[in-house]
Amino acid sequence: MINNLNAADLPRPAPRSSNPEIMAAEIIERLTYRIGKDVKVAKPHDWLTATILVVRDRIIDKWMASTRKAYADNSKRVYYLSLEFLIGRLMRDAISNIGLMQEIRDALSSLGVDLDVIAGLEPDAALGNGGLGRLAACFMESMATVDIPAYGYGIRYVHGLFRQQMADGWQVELPETWLAHGNPWEFERRESSYEVGFGGSVETIGGYEEPQRFVWKPAERVIAMAYDTPVVGWRGTRVNTLRLWSAQPIDPILLAAFNAGDHIGALKESNKAESLTRVLYPADATPAGQELRLRQEFFFSSASLQDILRRHLQQYPDFTSLPDKVSIQLNDTHPAISICEMMRLLCDVHGLEFDEAWTITRGTFSYTNHTLLPEALESWPVPLLERLLPRHMQIVYAINANTLVYARKEKKMPDQQIRSISLIDENGERRVRMGNLAFIGSHSINGVSALHTELMKETVFADLHSLYPDRINNKTNGITPRRWLMQCNPGLTGLIREAIGDDFLDDAEKLTALDRFADDAGFRAKFAEVKRLNKVRLANTVAQRMGIRVDPSAMFDIQIKRIHEYKRQLLNLVETVALYDQIRSHPELDWVPRVKFFAGKAAPSYHNAKLIIKLANDIARVINNDPAVRGLLKVVFIPNYNVSLAEIMVPAADLSEQISTAGMEASGTGNMKFALNGALTIGTLDGANVEMLEHVGDENIVIFGMTADEVAKARAEGHNPRAIIEQSAELSQALSSIASGVFSPDDRSRFSALIDGIYNSDWFMVAADFDAYANAQREVDAIWSDPDSWYAKTVRNTARMGWFSSDRTIRQYAADIWRA
Ligand code: OX2
């Protein structure tokens, strides 16, 4: 339609104004004509939607300009493929990044609407489980900020991560419905839809004389429909796209069946297609292993790859330039099947030869590993892959053959190593190893902290690393300072601006200028006051939601993250019980008043994790109601942890618990958020804690416990937890009170198996690290008792954490991996 007109001659909408009066009028206009509500009857939700629509307009101009610029400059594009994007609420982020916070606030207040009230109504987009999904969200914001043309590709789950409720202290999972009121941020792109196939067979054409060709004839097909959400960088520099795929049936209804009276059968296909993108799998770092999960992985990989290749051919004549113009980053192995899909599309659809396609594919893909836990490494049974994706299975065999021949013939690799690098795991049921596929199909494989990267080289990928020694590299994780400082902590942001000016807003590493204020008593007092107000806010949240009163002058000690044995909430709880015993036996001592906060979700099928939640609630009930404690210790498990709750808890923390068994937490990112917001860390030498120690200095962090090497050695040689427990009176007493039912009088043996696990194997080194941890906690008490020293340390944490900005991480990916 536009083609026979000259686009430049068409009238253009006037650029959007940032004048509060004009924006107020626009909000009313949206309310009336887009939502169809009279001002008099509009509900708070309608105001929210109208405001988002007005904000959104201000983003669209920049969005289009960013897209046009990438075409005009022939820039390289980065594609971040991730099954999870834990983006949370978007409105405040967007308003703040385009610099209209005060203007929108004024516009709304002229209409009698409070920005904070409607912002609190925006649902959390919980399209992720934990750290991996939240990292993807921080990366999206940082890629826009550092001006990299990037697309995030993922799934538009109708139900994100479940809502957690407590029933008598047990976790109960309820469906989450973030789309219930519609989603004003997304644009449905009907023109960007692709067919994705499953099952069927592969037809071979040619052979002998002509080259062989393969054609996959899928038995089932669904449509992948794109939904785009703009991602605004800091100061609105650039707006990128988060493209989420939704599955739709090819035939919405089988009319013949319907007309024949089979009303349910007529919708069967349609329901099946839609169920593909209905729910996010709720397991963090443990593969679900179900066919639907593999279908989700292939569905979004295939749609994304088709989209990427189509966009490339719109601009370039062929695929030889693909590695120069496109980088595809695989967020863990969940999208690793993309490597085979790229090979299939290049060879079977676009007619390239296998070897040429392979060079292009490997030059384009790179892979980030997020965990070393052996049980967390994805693999799929060969028969399942063969049935669901027969052509991809052939490609797996072809890649494997080439790799193994190279390793054996040219590198003289011995049999045992050959077995370990193979794409097929032959121990027991034959399975395809997705980690090996991602490694072999990528030119870069990165870990997420220095320690994790070294351990990758020594453990899971030792043999592949010896074959391809240049591929593994480190990119220590980061967090976006926009959400995790400026927005969640306006009080601290204001105070820092007063002290050192605005430079840190554009470059978090400029926070180092704050360092000298650690010695300034006046500044420390203001810093403490900001912290107090944030603690009051959290105390109010807890009072409102749970009816529990906590004292903001107590130390707020916080552990928030997924519930996992390796993260050791259990160590924290056992120490809580030991402290409780001490407070009761020694009322004459000067105990530091503490509130121990916990929050986090457990995978619904993870029995011990759910038991740990119940234990926390049982312990809380007993301690919080015991008058002998005299309010010196409180335990609070806040239900339904999500990004928005984190935004309240992180700024309110005095003490950040980062106490995983060394060698098991790949990086952690919560650790960075707390330290940036002026909390002291108590932590093990694990993941990024090691680098935090280097940056903040060892006098400003409390490190305890076994090192990763010591843990590995104890596991290999066997350690004797029973002997360790017997030597520690505090530990024995705490464990036996939990095991004997002091906290569970209604079911005295409820926790006995959990505690037996510590006595019998202590895989996670809870007993082995207990004394070191308890001593470290008393060291924390001593620092707390000297407020000058406490706040000097916490100010230094804020000042020295700028390096952990995800802008730095993204610049390193861009320089070393993407060359974008
Ligand atoms: C998490 C890791 O457990 C965590 O240590 C890391 O900080 C985060 O990813 C981001 O890199 N699922 N979640 C993770 O790994 C997997 C697998």
UniProtKB/TrEMBL annotation:
CDD domains: GT35_Glycogen_Phosphorylase. InterPro entries: Glycg_phsphrylas (IPR011833), Glyco_trans_35 (IPR000811), Pyridoxal_P_attach_site (IPR035090). Its EC number is 2.4.1.1. It catalyses: [(1->4)-alpha-D-glucosyl](n) + phosphate = [(1->4)-alpha-D-glucosyl](n-1) + alpha-D-glucose 1-phosphate. GO terms for molecular function: glycogen phosphorylase activity; pyridoxal phosphate binding. GO terms for biological process: glycogen catabolic process. The modification N6-(pyridoxal phosphate)lysine is found at K673. Pfam families: Phosphorylase. This is Alpha-1,4 glucan phosphorylase. It comes from Rhizobium oryzihabitans.
